[in-house]
Amino acid sequence: MADDLHDVEVIEDTAEEERLDPEVAARRAAALAHVRKFGDPVLRSKARPIEVFDDALREEVARMAALMHDSMGIGLAATQLGTLHRVLVYRVEHDSPVNALINPELEWTGKEKEWMEEGCLSLPGVHVDVERPVNVRIRARNPRGEDIAIEASGLEARVIQHEMDHLDGVLILDRTPRDQRKEAMRILREQSEAAA
Questions:
Q1: Who contacts 80 (Cβ-Cβ below 8 Å, separation ≥6)?
Q2: 102 with 89: CB under 8 angstroms?
Q3: Distance CA 79, CA 38 (A)
Q4: 2, 92, 108, 127 - which has most CB atoms within 10 Å?
């Protein structure tokens, strides 16, 4: 998992460097403006299963992938954009293809669990420790409605679980120790006061 943590740090370091480019920074800010932030009730809502696999769904997935890319995230759930659809997109490596999971269900988790720091586009400036299973198997559908199964481990498993939590109205604040939750709430409160 140390390698996975390194991957997260590399992604964050890359994001810091890219933010220096005004065009990339503007694109990131525009994408983040679409992401619902802490306090928005949709983030606590449970998404509904997708029943129709059509061009509109594939367009939604493409839009989500583009916003995730421009915001420099590695995962995004439809609820974060205010849509109560059981759809998520993710990509562990910055240059790897985007994966879309429709109606994902956790089929199996391994016994081994690990703590790791997580952040969230909907909770800017907040990073907290979250314990999650290291290995998972997910059943879902792709944007064409075909059944798929994914066996994931390490960072990929963590990202999928994080985004699946969003589809159930669960935030990383719900999965972190009390002291870190209190500190995160302080940060979010200060941000809210500064914005007002």
A1: 35, 36, 43, 121, 122, 166
A2: no
A3: 12
A4: 92
44 pLDDT exceeds 70?
yes
- pLDDT of amino acid 144: 97
Residues whose CB is less than 8 angstroms from the CB of residue 161 and which lie 6 or more positions away in sequence, other chains included: 106, 132, 133, 136
CA distance 51 to 85: 10
Active site residue 59: no
Average pLDDT value for the chain: 90
Q: pTM of the predicted model, to two decimals?
A: 0.88
The residue behind tokens 């679409």 is 34
Q: Catalytic residue among 60, 118, 156, 163, which?
A: 163
Q: Give the span between the Cα atoms of 158 and 160, in whole angstroms.
A: 6
pLDDT in tens, 46-60: 999 999 999 999 999
Gyration radius (Cα) of the chain, Å: 16
Name the strand (E) or helix (H) holding 178. helix 178-195
